[in-house]
């Protein structure tokens, strides 16, 4: 029972360390909203990780196996599964382009900028509707438009949205007369960026497929050895063997992390990042 409890304790400790490293230091102002929220899917994965670690510990009596199994069950679905963040980013870019076109069409009917924002908020595409609705509410309550737009940029935290927000800020501050033309150009640019990102994602899909194949091969090989040839793995039952297994597991973790990073599309730098405040 000792190895089982030790393995589960190591898995729980590692998860707490990762969670602590993801937190921001006190007194710093985040440049974007919190990216991770503890959802039902996260709870399911956490339960599956604990169960998987417990099963590995019972089956092998190796604390390191319990630790590595729990970490694998927790991380691999996100690393090898669909790139949901990429799909959300594409949807957000398309929504920004559509909103820019809505603003352009509303402004062309001789409406003011604040009125155009208020009118288009309810019909803004779903990926950014909540943020634009908060912008409209802030405008109605008397918040200065440049400040409200800066909050919108921080909430969206998207380089394409920054371009649109910057154009709106300039129009609000200097009463630019060519805002409709700028919005038309920015909408076209946003759609072009979305198409480029889709093409890049298509080329990087082969990397994610390779990662899935490598992972599946490793899992099948390890499971086959545990079930069919336990004698081959007997040296890992010693303390030295557990340390070697931990080192090998660390190499695999580093390799999977590199594969996940290589298959992820980096975001271009923002032009309207939130300023940090010193404590």
UniProtKB/TrEMBL annotation:
Where the protein is mainly located, per its record? membrane
Its cellular-component GO annotations read:
plasma membrane
Places the protein is found: Cell membrane
The superkingdom of the source organism is Bacteria
The record gives the membrane topology as: Multi-pass membrane protein
**Domain Type II secretion system protein GspF, which positions?**
100-224
Question: Membrane-spanning residues where?
Answer: 213-233, 239-260
- What sections of the sequence does the record tag as coiled-coil? none
Recorded hits in InterPro entries, A to Z, give: T2SS_GspF_dom, T2SS_GspF_sf
Q: Which UniProt keywords apply?
A: Cell membrane, Membrane, Transmembrane, Transmembrane helix
Q: What is this protein called?
A: Type II secretion system protein
Species this protein is from: Micromonospora sonchi
